[in-house]
Design a protein that fits this description.
By secondary structure, the protein is mainly alpha-helical. 68% of the residues lie in helices and 1% in strands. It has 20 helices and two strands. It has helices at residues 15-37, 41-49, 54-85, 95-130, 138-157, 185-213, 226-258, 271-305, 312-325, 341-369, 378-400, 403-409, 413-443, 449-475, 491-520, 522-525, 562-573, 593-610, 613-632, 642-663; strands at 585-587, 638-640. Strands 1-2 form a two-stranded antiparallel ribbon. Helix 6 runs antiparallel to helix 7 (226-258). The protein is globular and about 75 Å long. It starts with 14 loop residues before the first helix and ends with a helix.
Length: 665
């Protein structure tokens, strides 16, 4: 009745796992009990869980990413501490547990930290920057988020029920085939990412449509903020690349479940086809993550240099060039496969070429700061830390693009250091910069500046201490994923790397403290104007937090940086213009579609993993019924009356007018 599921699936004999699971369970139960007993459940259901407001969904994406960051970083601490003590010793993590940890770490950090973080920021910011009411498909947006959350939940369930994959964050055959991975670990991986991948694809379609079709009057393409351009490029890559991932995993599932032989050489398949397919998705994925971060840096450098972004059109061209060339470099991930010198040379040259538009962006950011009145709040520190760190990571990437060098460094810790150099220094620093930058817009008060800067310094120092030794270890011949080793010269550097991870842990602790302190002192940190940074794009022209409808009247955009020019005109006149005519606004109603779909997707995913076929059928039937009921119901929109809109907008205008009066001598 329960397929492969039995009491043996619970790892009672692994105290680390059981203690961790018990602590997490107590925290979750405690939070849920507090929500119910304090009477917050109705608010949580109506305002967040069933919301289709792009701003609420964006915030939920970011909360998911931050929670998964804690989970993924705990795996990193376990790995670094294990390797620090594992010279001529088995350490404290058995090999099968260590293998699951490094696989879960990579999976969580890429799919459930970096992806939700940048998608959340894009969801929150882009409609505001475009002068729109919402994304193109609000209910689809909710479905995309909750399917992503389902994937994260399945990965974490594997911690307690069953096991996770031991293949690394990408499940290369033949290791991931049933012969060599007969347990459910690879199945947890595949179904979690299939479900969350559908959610990501829905988000990509939604955001592409939003940028192309849902813009304020006068908001032409070349008047869009840079973050909108990088969002467009990133989501075009999602729409083009994620179906490859879905098809690749579907073929591997058919191999495992029905005895197909797509990737089994002895059955007529081809293992290297998996490598080509997975990296045809995998390298565009790097740019799916880093392009939105590039957009964030563009906004931050321009705002805190108090001048327009240098070379705006060249930045647009560089962004779209990266979007196209990113599909032409995938084979550099396996130069050692034996494709031949000619093929390797083509992909090596393409990899070097893609560094050119990235270099254009770096110089444009530097020239944006040159001659500006530069200030250094926390978002600017994260951005400056990115420039230095990412240049170093980019140079090591160009080195790895040279096939003879890659033959030496392939599968070594040098590669691990390069990858983290780019993803942490590029993507995560960008996500933190965006988090600090747009937090006041989301909640109406700023984050504590001192704690934010302290967190940055611990993060960046910890990053260099943790990962620079890995470059040296790679050059010394240490390969990836070693549970123990017998080379005495490696251990001192691994101890240094473990100390760096502890410094990063302090940085994460300071970020948590920053959030708590900021909430407690939110009255002192409040910004009534909606524009605490003297921003340049349209999101800063509305109240903070923005109303459900974003703008009382849709802006009429006449030039680039419309908000900055409007603010400067008002500052010169020491007064705002006349009130606009207010009209009723129709907004989409809340919908439980996303949450209900995710609930049944979780049931189906768990049942498919454990071969509980009756539960699979039950989940499918319920999911289909949900689709029929919720997709074909007669839904009326919410009407927001003009007098309520006028009252809200007048309160905001009074705050802005007071700020203008105080700014004029």
């Amino acid at each position: 009745m329960f397929g492969k599921l039995s009491w043996d699936a619970i790892p009672i004999h692994q105290p680390i796992v059981m203690v961790t699971a018990a602590v997490v369970a107590l925290v979750v139960v405690g939070v849920l009990a507090w929500i119910v007993l304090s009477g917050h459940l109705p608010y949580l259901w109506t305002e967040w869980i069933t919301s289709v407001d792009h701003k609420r969904i964006g915030v939920m994406y970011i909360v998911l990413a931050l929670v998964m960051l804690l989970r993924g970083f705990s795996d990193a601490i376990l790995m670094r501490s294990q390797q620090a003590i594992a010279y001529a010793s088995p350490g404290y993590l058995p090999p099968e547990h260590f293998d699951q940890i490094f696989s879960a770490h990579g999976t969580l950090m890429i799919f459930f930290v970096a992806m939700p973080f940048v998608i959340g920021l894009m969801n929150f910011v882009v409609p505001l920057q475009l002068g729109a009411r919402d994304v193109a498909f609000p209910t689809l947006n909710s479905v995309g988020f909750w399917l992503t959350a389902t994937g994260a939940l399945l990965v974490n369930i594997s911690l307690v029920v069953g096991e996770f994959a031991r293949t690394g964050w990408l499940p290369y055959p033949p290791l991931s085939e049933l012969t060599y991975s007969p347990g459910v670990g690879v199945d947890y991986y595949l179904w979690a990412l299939q479900i969350s991948g559908v959610g990501t694809l829905l988000s990509g379609i939604n955001l592409v449509t939003t940028v192309l079709k849902v813009r304020a009057p006068g908001m032409s393409y070349l008047r869009m903020p840079m973050f909108c351009w990088t969002t467009l490029a990133s989501n075009l890559l999602i729409v083009a690349a994620f179906p490859i991932l879905t098809a690749t995993f579907a073929m591997l599932l058919l191999d495992r479940y029905l005895g197909f032989h797509f990737f089994t050489n002895e059955g007529g398949g081809n293992v290297m086809m998996f490598m080509n397919l997975i990296w045809a998705w995998g390298h565009p994925e790097v740019y799916i993550l880093v392009l939105p971060a590039f957009g964030i840096y563009s906004e931050v450098f321009s705002t805190f240099s108090r001048k327009p972004l240098f070379g705006y059109r060249s930045m647009v061209m560089a962004t779209m060039a990266i979007c196209i060339i990113s599909f032409m470099v995938w084979l550099h991930h396996f130069f050692t496969m034996g494709a031949g010198a000619d093929v390797n040379a083509v992909f090596g040259i393409a990899t070097m070429i893609i560094a050119v538009p990235t270099g254009v962006k770096i110089y444009n950011w530097l020239f944006t700061m040159y001659g500006g009145r530069v200030v250094f709040p926390a978002p600017m520190l994260w951005s400056l830390g990115f420039v230095v760190t990412f240049i170093l990571g980019g140079m090591t990437g160009v080195l790895l693009a040279v096939p003879p060098a890659d033959f030496v460094l392939h599968n070594s810790l040098f590669l691990v250091a390069h990858f983290h150099n780019v993803i942490i220094g590029g993507v995560l620093f960008g996500a933190f910069a965006g988090y600090e930058y747009w937090f006041p817009k989301a909640f109406g008060f700023r984050l504590h500046e001192g704690l934010g800067k302290a967190a940055f310094w611990f993060w960046i120092v910890g990053f260099y201490v943790a990962f620079m030794p890995l470059y040296l270890l790679g050059l010394m011949g240490m390969t990836r994923r070693m549970q123990h080793y017998d080379v005495p010269g490696w251990q001192p550097w691994l101890i240094v790397a473990a100390f760096g991870a502890l410094l990063i842990l302090v940085g994460i602790g300071l970020q948590a403290a920053q959030l708590v302190v900021s909430i407690r002192h939110r009255a002192a940190l409040r910004d009534p104007t909606g524009d605490p940074w003297q921003g340049r794009s349209l999101e800063w022209s509305t109240a903070s937090p923005p109303p459900m409808y974003n703008f009382a009247v849709l802006p009429d955009v006449e030039r680039e940086e419309a908000h900055w020019h409007a603010r400067e005109a008002a500052r010169s006149a020491a007064a705002l213009g006349p009130e606009p005519p207010y009209r009723d606004i129709h907004m989409p109603k809340n919908s439980a579609t996303g949450f209900v779909c995710a609930f049944f997707a979780t049931i189906m995913g768990f049942a498919l993993i454990w071969h509980i076929w009756w539960l699979v059928i039950f989940g499918f039937v319920c999911a289909y019924a949900t689709f029929v009921v919720l997709a074909w119901r007669d839904v009326h929109e919410d009407l927001i009356p003009a007098d309520r809109i006028a009252a809200d907008d007048r309160a905001h205008r009074r705050a802005v007018q007071a700020a203008l009066a105080g700014a004029v001598p």
